[in-house]
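Researcher: Structure for this, please.
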Amino acid sequence: MPISAYAQKLAPPTLPEGLIKWQGPASYTQVTAGNPPSGGDSFPSILLGVDEILAISFMGTYTGNFEVVPVRISAAKWALEWRALKTATIGGQSQTSGTEAAASTNLSAEYANLHIITRAA
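Model: Predicted structure, token format:
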């Protein structure tokens, strides 16, 4: 869920971009491989009012417990895969460092900054 955003529209030919503070979901759903993949923390382009998200990069969570890995579903939809950086009980679930957050993990206390590059609507 987006908490705050700073967007900057740069002069052509560059693309609109922004920095978003993102809050984790209250109940995480793991990413399922497929064509397209499903699950994860949904991030549709409609949240930003744009047609397409071209790229998402991240800086990790404020706590250092997780990293957020962007997964492209389609031009208009991405998912965020939360991966544990610590082996511990976090968000009510047992986490293992280097693996995806456990299903149903409460990530609402976790925040990450995401750098987004879009194609404007």
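Researcher: Any notable elements?
Model: DSSP finds no helices and nine strands in the chain. Residues 66 and 84 are 4 Å apart (CA to CA).
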